[in-house]
């Protein structure tokens, strides 16, 4: 059974490094959660290392700019690692060819600032790279049925630069690149992703944590923090890392009436239904 805690400080001394999710934990896409920001600052003040680990499809420098716009200060973190960073390593190694068809919004253009590929039409492409929906406020994966069917007919592989299915922006739940990958898989298409819960982003996170600490960090001293059972919690389990589930994020509506305080019976039912077993749970990061 997961241990419900009220504050990150209850785990003082147990972990040297946090791999901390952003959306739903540190901010909601519009504003930073003040209590979460203060918890991360306090953790660093006590000697801990914070690696912000996000499934955003954009590289680190773009994520940093977004955090700055939201009011997140640099003293909350030691490093940032994104799904976009992990995906770019594979793309620039030539794993996806040099001519790609892109599905995504203008806000994701930063991905292609360092991607060593040419964007072409679907008929000319070696593969498909999805950073998100073109208009995630109005569209769903159904709007891409024809494009996905055409890509499948050509046998193209699809790279999802963001494995998340959904993200909450304020009070709205929006589709992410993972939703398109899910639809492509339903057609029998081949997809791949490098963000959480997949191994590449954790390898990058470990490297950044070691650089910040000036030494290698044992896995037993790393705690993964996140609100996605299929990404943050599943990824931690696959990597043999402990996890702190933030129940007041994506799962807030099913874990109780108050996002700050999950109802134990409802939390257990949710975790059991999703085959998730985080070591700890907190309503909201604080």
UniProtKB/TrEMBL annotation:
It comes from the Bacteria. The keyword Acetylation does not apply. The keyword Hydrolase applies. Keywords: Hydrolase. One of its GO terms (cellular component) is cytoplasm. One of its GO terms (molecular function) is phosphatase activity. CDD domains: HAD_like. This is HAD-superfamily class IIA hydrolase, TIGR01459. It comes from Albimonas donghaensis. The lineage of its organism: Bacteria, Pseudomonadati, Pseudomonadota, Alphaproteobacteria, Rhodobacterales.
